[in-house]
């Protein structure tokens, strides 16, 4: 048996050494050239067959353990998920997210109209008549809004209150964005509804507070974080409509197949929105209610709006945008 094993090992040793060398040479097999991946796959299958043969032939436990470990490491390298990379997040934010937003600009434009149009209606209607506002807002909510913005936000809050409110804003903003996106599974109609609903509610609140004489306070508070928060809500609604459209226009695929084809774009949009909402929550929790004078806040807000719009319009244009 020993002579047979030694002869077989000598015959197969070359493939084993080549596979072990590949595993030692590359940290991540997902970055290998296609030809090298094909060779690694062929060697992995050969080693798996060798492992089966060694077991059935009754070769020594040491040899079986060696082949078992080699096959296991090769399987992990070939079939495991790509490793976590900080560079992937940087690439998403610097290039892929704004490119994907531009690629679906039609849906973003529709979402912006569905959000801003009802917002304008709610704002104008509430300024003209507080009764209009109370038909949209619960009276308790309207009273709370009037009380909250009756004071200049530059008076500030305590540090503990800021931290608590930042956590609240994260939860609240993500909830709004999630509804705008997730209900897109209803062929996009749910996303359209929540864009209109949230736009109308925000507009009614703004108009009601303005009619009560506290519009400057409200403006000072929301303009800074609004660049991130409101834009993120529009993009999340657009992502929901992209998902809904994929279920309607399948290009001959099954609905699941059509949805899977757009999964990468949807994931990039939602991850980008999540980052924008996190930034908005930090600004809303710490910057918006701070003691910073109003003119400074308005100046910073203008710069933030310009920066967000420029980022979405220009970031990632150094390379060629990926086709839809």
Form type: elongated
Estimate the helix proportion, in percent.
over 70%
Radius of gyration from CA coordinates: 29 Å
User: Which strand-content bin applies to the residues?
Assistant: under 5%
Structural class given helices, strands, pairing? Answer: mainly alpha
Poorly predicted residue ranges: 319-324
The biggest sheet amounts to: none
Q: What is the β-strand count? A: 0
Task: Give an overview in words.
α1 packs antiparallel against α2, α1 runs parallel beside α3 and α4 crosses α13 (294-314). The chain is elongated, with a radius of gyration of 29 Å. The longest helix has 34 residues, at 215-248. The relative contact order is 0.11. 80% of the residues lie in helices and 0% in strands. It has two domains: 2-79; 86-314, no CATH class. With 324 residues, it is mostly helical. The protein has 13 helices and no strands.
Question: Main traits of this protein?
Answer:
single chain, 324 residues, disordered C terminus, 13 helices
